[in-house]
Amino acid sequence: MSDYVLQAEDVAIHYGGVKAVDGVALTLTQGQIRGLIGPNGAGKSTVIDAITGRRRLTRGKVMLRGEDVSALGVVERRQRGLSRSFQRTSIFGEMAVRQQVELAAWKMGVSEPGADADDVLQELELASMAHTIANDLGYGEQRRLDLALALVGRPSVLLLDEPMAGLSVQESLDLAQHLKALTTRRQVSVLLVEHDMDVVFGISDVVTVFELGRVIASGTPAEVRSDPRVREAYLGSAA
Amino acid sequence: MSIQRVAGSAAVALVVGAGVFAWVSSGTLLSLLTQAIIYAVFALGVGVLLRQNGMVSFGHALFFGCAGYAVGLLLQAQWSAELAMLATLAGMAVVAFVMGLVIVRVPGVAFGMLTLAIGQMFFLTASRSRGLTGGADGMNIDWPSTLFGVSQSVLLKPANLFLLCWCTLVGVMVLLGLLLNSRFGRITEAVRDNEERARFIGIRTLLPRAAVYALSAVITGLAGLLSALNTGFVSPENLHWSLSGVALMMVVVGGYKALWGPALGAVVYFMAKDFLGDYATHWMAIFGVALITVIVFSPTGLAGLLERVVKGKAAVRVHKAHGH
User: Is the pLDDT of residue B280 over 80?
Assistant: First the structure.
């Protein structure tokens, strides 16, 4: 069995003649954070959609802990430990915070869903808002709730689509710290799509750079930062 | 809502029903109240679909009318009344669930139009199947002399029939309160709020939505059975879209977010019909203005308005208590 928790091989998503993603290969080892960066429209979110089963693969396969999950639906992949957050906050607006996190834990078959929910809420500093209706939360709190819904049930892989979008600098830094701590504590592997370069380079173990649906560079943050192709295509000469 | 609160509310409601049973002697008023309660059950059925699935049906009279026709036809086929009623509700649950598996996939307005089309299809079928349903003239329902061990003459007394309908309404609300407070209720709320996120926390979203559709159909069918018992008659009018529209108006006026909102809307509708009908031929025009007022100024309906008033008063009491 391979050491990879997640392995995407030759993943392609084509819409007619448009190749949104073409021949992408990605891996995640246990507890690893892989940052995924690239300009808008590079295909980063599409890769997350492909891995989680939201979009059908044109070509390639997705392996989760050595099992080919390419033919499985969203629910089956989630039950096997593949979880995600969304670019736009995706929560249950009219439910209380704890109620929805506990429901998510229960659906994941956690033996004590209430305890797991409390644990996650505590870790994300949402415990004091446990009985607040989600729509009444502030934006930053809603983003953390979105993360809590993805994190509960002890998934093995977490795919985060711009979790810092719309947050203030301080909120982004706080969330990044939470994320790093949670990853270590819960031994979850993370694929992080994010435009905030300070966050990506600050917490990622490896970084992959996308352009026009293809990987143009991959390596440690330092290697990627110094890659001339990346500087030209995305980071700019000042990076 | 906790189990204690559901039980407490049910006990209060049963006492109120018993009070009406004991103190109201006017047959006309009891008859009006019975009709209002039957429509309250109907509105609950429409309301639960809106509350748990976020879906508006313009064709729920389909289940209201079909329940009457089904029990009437089964009685003609010499089934026992009790079995006929149970078979009607069970059959309705199965048919509605299968229908739900197909039609709840259709989003928004298209779903409403689909329910309208299906309802009208049955309306026309019932209107034209003279040999089976009596066509436009309708069909008398031959209830047996005893039902659940109670003689028809006793059961159909206005006060007794009112009490039966009231207890049915309370029973349905208690069961709904418990069901919607369970995991099933949470799942359906999650699916209603955000179907995509629901799938990404591992919920298969089609089955719960179809189950809610079936649940709402069974509640509406129960109202149809009570109506068939009350009038001993069913006609294509019981299937007509305008009846679905009336039930929807009750839900909007009463408010669907509170479980009891649709029932309140039904009672208000019948009271308005009786009161305004004495003064104006086109009383619906006045009710229409009331409907617009509610939609504009209290989108959560009268139930939402009452809840806000009660919560506001409670907040003022707390504030005063702290002030002193």
Answer: no
Residue B48, domain CATH: 1.10.3470
CA pair distance B69, B61, nearest whole angstrom? 12
Query: Structurally, how many domains does chain B consist of?
Result: 1
Out of A94, A99, A107, closest to residue B201 by CB:
A107
Closest CA to A54 of A37, A78, A29: A78
Is the CB of B189 less than 8 angstroms away from the CB of A94? yes
A170 and A213 share one domain:
yes
Q: How far is A147 from chain B (nearest CA, A)?
A: 12
Q: Do A169 and A67 share a structural domain? A: yes
What would the pLDDT profile of A180-200 be if each residue is shown by its tens digit?
A: 888 888 889 999 999 888 889
Model-level pTM?
0.89
Number of domains, chain A: 2
The two three-digit tokens of residue A207, written as one number: 């970084």
Contacts of B199 in chain A (CB under 8 A): 74-75, 78
What are the beta bridge partners of residue A217? A209
In B, residues 182-211, which contact A (CB 8 Å cutoff)? 183, 186-187, 189-190, 193-194, 196-204
How high is the ipTM of this complex? Answer: 0.89
Chain B residues inside the 8 Å CB shell of A151: none
Q: What is the DSSP string of A175-231?
A: HHHHHHHHHHHHT-EEEEE-S-HHHHHHH-SEEEEEETTEEEEEE-HHHHHH-HHHI
Q: Which residues form the domain of A123?
A: 90-154
Which whole number is the average pLDDT over B92-115?
Answer: 95
pLDDT score recorded for residue A239: 47
Across A216-236, average pLDDT: 84
